[in-house]
Amino acid sequence: MPQLPRGVRHNERPRARQGDEAEKATHVGGVQLVPGVGRTITGGELKGTAASERSVTFFSIEAEASGSPVAGAAAGAVACVFDSWLGDDLVRAHPAVLATTPVKKALQGLHRPTGFEIGRARIRSSEFFRTHNPGKRLPAFWAIQVRGQAGRDDMGLTASGTLVVSRRVLDALLDFRIGRAVLTQYTAGKSTSRRTRE
User: Fold this and answer.
1) Could you tell me the residue ranges of all domains in the chain?
2) Which of 61, 64, 148, 198 is the most exposed place for a label (fewest CB within 10 A)?
3) How far apart are the first and last CA of the chain?
4) For residue range 104-147, what is the model confidence (pLDDT) as tens digits?
5) What is the pLDDT at residue 121?
6) What is the signed CA dihedral for 73, 79, 81, 86, rounded to 10 degrees?
7) Interatomic CA distance for residues 91 and 162, integer angstroms
8) How far apart are the C-alpha atoms of 175 and 195, rounded to whole Å?
9) HSE of 152, CA atoms in CB hemisphere, 13 A
10) pTM for the complete prediction?
11) What average pLDDT does the chain have?
12) How many angstroms separate the CA atoms of 89 and 101, rounded?
């Protein structure tokens, strides 16, 4: 069996809901994205698509949820405790957006990125994490302070707190582990479905 690109699972199929056939579909790398329908898109499906196929410019990302903010942290500081971590390089400890050092460097390497700043984050593992992951150590994480407008800047948040990124940010993220993130085509003014990987 040929080896699949990182993050691609065998027998994955797009998921749609009844009644969506009437909506205009967009194809990215041979994968049909139905506007407004949440569906897990893997790195192998999007990476390396032709420029003519890159008509989708913004995506909402529901990253792996790995922890929560620490109560009583100093103003402006980002401190989080992790109850779990399944290995993704971009995670949420709502409302914080956290990234590993390689992702931080890739984002900082973009030409004049807009809508976000990157700063230090203090993280620690919880007793639950240590009990269920004996000997496992967390990597360094950095806090992405998202300040942009969704659908305009490279990073923005919707009114409900959903992270929205530009295509070039997504391209950068696809070089790393985001296999547990749910990606959805973002259209301003429309709600996005929230579905998790089965």
Assistant:
1) 20-185
2) 198
3) 23
4) 999 999 999 999 999 999 999 999 999 999 999 999 999 999 99
5) 93
6) 160
7) 13
8) 23
9) 7
10) 0.69
11) 77
12) 8
Percent of the chain with pLDDT over 90: 57
CA 163 to mean position of chain CA atoms: 7
pLDDT digits (tens, 9 = 90+) for 59-98: 999 999 998 888 766 766 899 999 999 999 999 998 899 9
Burial (Cβ within 10 Å: 0-12, 13-18, ≥19) of residue 93: buried
Contact 40, 184 (CB under 8 A): no
Residue 164: closest CA among 118, 97, 111, 112: 97
The one-letter amino acid at 59: F
Alpha carbons 197 and 46: distance in angstroms, whole number: 17
Does residue 19 contact residue 175 with C-beta atoms inside 8 Å? Answer: no
* Angstrom distances, CA of residue 114 to CA of 111, 124, 143, 166: 9, 29, 16, 10
